Amino acid sequence: MFKVEKEFDFANKHESLVIGLFDKPTKFSEKLADLDKFFEGQLTELEKSGDISAKKKAISVIHTFGKTGAKRLIFVGLGNETNFSFEFLRQAFGRTFKKIKDAKLRETAIFLDSFTAETVELQDAAHAVSEAIALSTYQFEGYKQKSNEPEVNLETITVYANAADEDEIRASLMVGYAYGKGTNSARTLVNTPGNKLTATDMANYAKELAAKYNFEVEILEKEDMIKLGMGALLAVNQGSAEPPKLIVLKYQGKDEWKDVIGLVGKGITFDTGGYSLKPKDGIVGMKTDMGGAAAVLGAMEIIGELKPEKNVVAVIPSTDNMISGSALKPDDVITSMSGKTIEVLNTDAEGRLALADAVTYAKHQGADYLVDVATLTGGVIIALGTETTGALTNNEAFFEQVLEASYEAGEPIWRLPLFERDKERVRSSKIADLNNSPGREGHAIMGGAFIGEFAEDTPWVHLDIAGTATTNKEHDLGPTGATGVMTRTLALFVERFETL
Ligand code: BES
Ligand code: ZN
Ligand code: ZN
Question: Which residues of the chain form CATH 3.40.630.10?
Fold first, then answer.
């Protein structure tokens, strides 16, 4: 898909040539001086008249009428160079390539040097462009009967990069593309309805991923869970006609199985709420309740592609949360794999139950560090809205590493407090060790705090993506629906991870 070229020639034939244009201080001086000269100063004139804009994210298309091999010049406004950032560039590229897709171009070239500044080097720009291409052109295929109109996709992108080392640019393009692709896989899983993605389907998907990337894979069946005493995960599945699965993937990038990072993702394929039934408006969309699992699987795909020297165990508890004569009821008391007993006050707080046993299992598999990701609470949406993922931790230094990765991935997270007094609330059952729903107050904290009881002393970060896993606004890096949030954060976090 990507071709890297060092030398640019005006005669080279392209459907379009994408060029970055800074408003300040350069405009058509410096890197773009030759281009403007080739057009005898016309580009500067067009900028003055407003036909080409250097304003942030403005996109101006100029036809060349055969004057250059490129049929069109697509200028991307980059604003003031002093405010230029990697995250802005990724978004600007997203907007640009959406436009190129809408124009049904199969081929384009990009003058990558024009997208660099002191804050963003050529290699970063290469990562940004390939990641943005993958993310921004994503579409969920869906189930409509096919129309006759053939789909036109961007197939070839020639990247002009005046770099010392073309292989480095190629490598960065590959890495960015892997990040984008892995995120898109997560999006597709989340967008898939519950009848088409059962726990069994998710387990099969994980097996295929394992075969492709040589991961060790283990699928625990209901009988295995019974033997292991996974009473919490089993309780969630109790009302279902679909068997539960505990999906385990292991990636070993170090010689020894040590310093293991556990990635645990909530894989509820549909959440009715159970007997604490969701209202009819709140139940629609609950096919996305496996967004945490999707992020973990997406991250594993990226890890499989990039093969960092790290050890990772991914654990996904998967089931739907249904109602039947055998379903879990409020007031029931269950026993988790850890031995801790739980009074179930609300069957709709099922994610924390499933995750409790998954966290315990991850530790049994040697996880020395834990990150759990879950569409866990409506409360996090009330607390932080839909742009920011909520986080909790029991270890500041560990949290810093996740925070750093999220910042770089452009997926903001914000930490909520977790004090002893909060922990006391999840321990406040009169008849069991824990209760799964201590009430509405601060309930995003309560959800995380409950999972923390099972992480115990293992350094742990909890990410609540209930607000961020989906969006109802089309954005520069994707359509409405699933965002694939935390896929890139997790993968980047693993890549960069340093033992505490
Ligand atoms: N899956 C939901 C959380 C959710 C809400 C995800 C909205 C995405 C969008 C979760 O299982 C749930 O129902 N949580 C309850 C917890 C409560 C009963 C303590 C909630 O947030 O209301
Ligand atoms: Zn629920
Ligand atoms: Zn749920």
Answer: 192-496
Active site residue 280: no
CA 199 – CA 211 distance, rounded (Å):
18
317: preceding bond cis by omega (within 30 degrees): no
Class of domain 192-496: alpha beta
Whether pLDDT at 150 is above 80: no
Residue 377 Cβ contacting ligand 1 at under 6 Å: yes
Query: Which residue has a Cα nearest atom 7 of ligand 1?
Result: 378
Query: In the annotation, is 278 catalytic?
Result: yes
Classify domain 2-164 at the CATH superfamily level: Leucine Aminopeptidase, subunit E, domain 1 (3.40.220.10)
The DSSP-derived string for 189-215 is HHHS-TTTS-HHHHHHHHHHHHHHHT-
Cβ count within 10 A of residue 364: 13
Domain ranges in the chain with CATH number 3.40.220.10:
2-164
For ligand 2, the distance from its centroid to the CA atom of residue 281, given in whole angstroms, is 14
Q: What is the pLDDT of residues 92-117, one digit of tens each?
A: 999 999 999 999 999 999 999 999 99
- State yes or no: 457 annotated in a binding site: no
Selecting among 99, 278, 329, 425, the annotated active-site residue is 278
**What integer is the mean pLDDT of 327-340?**
98
- Gap from CA of 151 to ligand 3 centroid (Å): 36
User: Does the pLDDT of residue 149 top 80, yes or no?
Assistant: no
Beta-strand pair 107-111/156-160: parallel
Determine what percent of the chain falls in helix, strand and coil, rounding each to the nearest 5. Answer: 40, 20, 40
